[in-house]
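Design a sequence for this backbone.
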């Protein structure tokens, strides 16, 4: 065969390779292990809110996860190191007794942020990253970024001080179809930003499309991505199953089955660029079940079990520990957790909600079967 043979390639991206194989076709339920043991996981993307909501939801994240990257989109966004440190102190105060859960704080990037703020963030023991919300993309994103050009001095400082940029990757112009937002952002904003800032480390948060998977796979190690349980377990049909389902509405919105399959393959591939980030985002029932319902899915109470469910679907539970407990810590340059947790094979139903009434919080996967349960 000549060197120019079209089928010959040193590197086949996983997203293409996996289309040619049926990796788990011979497996069956009985091959699932009776227990799984893994290093205690971390959640690399969570919304803990503040005040009474923080008190309500924190125990669920602290129960399963040793650490979590805490998103800064509070009603008054966390734009300074000082306010991030104060928020971290409020979180620590509200931890359940005996919990040594550690919040890893982020700053909310605005167009008026100055490079000196990045210097303060880099020197702070509490701040680990900066979050970019395109203006209008999601909950409390009005103070977000209109265009990336004005960010150059701040991104230069982040590059120099090795502070990762966490990106809600969706184009927000009204002409872009809501299902194309991620892909359009990727081409128009993310690619040029990575070219211009060749040392910047980036987490493409809560990716939802086969295109985003392929992009991360084809990027150097400085580009990583988080994947949520809802994007691994549901496709967009779930939003319309028998009627409009507000509790399945999150942003980026659920995508097609082909995208879910690509995300499942990426999460279970062992590729260290992909790691766990729940995007657990509580909104009370009255705000979800509304003529203009809020985006967000509250998954913290069943998060690790829901990931196990997704990995069990493709008989890849041996890859859960890397995704849930190793890859994120390695990317952030933090030690892996030494403590271990156990998940037992157990058929049980995810709880439907936390509390009742208008303030109830619907729980992801509520009422559905889960095949593993954490001993916590
Ligand atoms: O669905 C979402 N909810 N997506 C986000 O990006 C934000 C989050 C929230 O804060 O409610
Ligand atoms: Zn989020």
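Sequence:
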């Amino acid at each position: 065969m000549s060197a120019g043979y079209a089928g010959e390639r040193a590197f086949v991206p996983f997203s293409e390779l996996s289309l040619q194989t049926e990796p788990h076709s011979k497996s069956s339920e009985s091959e699932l292990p009776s227990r799984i043991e893994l290093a205690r996981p971390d959640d690399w993307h969570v919304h803990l809110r503040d005040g009474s909501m923080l008190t309500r939801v924190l125990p669920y994240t602290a129960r399963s996860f040793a650490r979590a990257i805490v998103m800064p989109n509070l009603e008054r966004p966390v734009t300074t190191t000082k306010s991030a440190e104060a928020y971290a102190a409020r979180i620590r105060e509200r931890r359940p007794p005996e919990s040594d859960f550690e919040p890893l704080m982020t700053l909310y990037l605005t167009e008026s942020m100055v490079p000196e703020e990045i210097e303060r963030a880099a020197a702070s023991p509490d701040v680990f990253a900066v979050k970019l919300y395109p203006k209008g993309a999601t909950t409390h994103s009005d103070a977000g970024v209109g265009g990336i050009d004005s960010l150059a001095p701040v991104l230069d400082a982040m590059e120099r001080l090795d502070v990762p940029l966490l990106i809600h990757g969706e184009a927000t112009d009204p002409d872009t179809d809501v299902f194309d937002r991620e892909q359009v952002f990727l081409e128009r904003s993310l690619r040029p930003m990575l070219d211009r800032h060749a040392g910047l480390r980036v987490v493409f948060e809560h990716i939802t499309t086969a295109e985003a998977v392929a992009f991360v796979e084809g990027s150097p190690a400085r580009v990583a991505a988080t994947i949520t349980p809802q994007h691994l377990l549901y496709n967009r049909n779930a939003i319309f199953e028998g009627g409009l389902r507000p509790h399945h509405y999150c942003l980026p919105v659920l995508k097609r089955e082909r995208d879910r399959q690509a995300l499942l393959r990426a999460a279970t591939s062992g590729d260290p660029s992909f790691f766990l980030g729940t995007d657990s985002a509580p909104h009370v029932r009255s705000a979800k079940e509304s003529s203009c319902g809020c985006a967000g899915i509250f998954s913290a109470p069943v998060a690790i079990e829901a990931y196990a469910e997704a990995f069990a679907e493709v008989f890849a539970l041996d890859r859960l520990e890397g995704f849930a407990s190793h890859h994120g810590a390695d990317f952030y340059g933090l030690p892996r957790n030494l403590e271990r947790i156990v998940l037992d094979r157990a058929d049980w139903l995810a709880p439907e909600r936390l509390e009742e009434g208008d303030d109830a919080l619907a729980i992801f996967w509520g009422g559905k079967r889960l095949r593993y349960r954490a001993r916590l």
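The pocket of zinc ion (ligand 2) is lined by residues 45, 47, 71, 279, 281 (CB under 6 Å).
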